Amino acid sequence: MDEQQKQNVNQAAEQWTDSSQQVFRTMADRTVARQESNLRLTQNFFQNWIEQVNNQAQGIREATQGLQEQGQRQREAFETLSEEGTNAYSEFLNSAMSFYQEALNTAAQVGQQNLQQGAQVTQQSVQAGVQAASQATQQVIEATSQAAQAASENGQQAPRETRRGSRSSS
pTM of this prediction? Predict the structure, then answer.
């Protein structure tokens, strides 16, 4: 092999190494970008879900408050009517309304507790999902970096081996 052919082989090996490195860098950049995009989508999904849960909780609170207000108005109306009736009838209505109010308050408290527990579980799930996505992204970045480094090292060794082989054959 003459000197010109050796130079052509070395130049081709260097071009191949450079193009391989560019391909690996492009793949790594696209992988990282995709992971970041997936992370943003996951975060948006869970944030929207939490907002929906909070909106529903607010609606339930408002409905519960409306029921309490209606219960209070009904109680006042019944008390006005009962003032004109007998004491026994008045006591019956008051006890019935007290039971109704207690049941309504108990239901509101249970509903509020369930909403708070649901919000906590949701928040913990979102945090776990974000953490898992972040870890996965970090692992992909590390793996891509290692692959690029290995490819770079392999790419640098190839021209050396080519040069050594060309020296020993001359």
Answer: 0.32
